[in-house]
Amino acid sequence: IETACLMTADARLLAAFVTEPAENNFPRLPVRADENVFISVMGFASTEAHARHKAALAASPAWQDFWRAAQPGLTKPTETLRLSPTSQSLVGIYS
Description:
Structural class: alpha+beta
């Protein structure tokens, strides 16, 4: 997966994960073998930075090309979850 099209000046890519198409060799950990996923975890300095990032993606030809190409492979609607670090979180200390 090409994650470069996700990047803008306001975003930090903290992590990106894709489905591992291997057999589960650790049965105590349940795996949804029938689902393929891509997860990105992005960091933003503020709510405004997140809004600028969304606007930049909406205007980006590279993002639009990626999104159009990804659509046929989607089996469920995409989800966007907004998380905030807790007081114990290490997210943000390396920015």
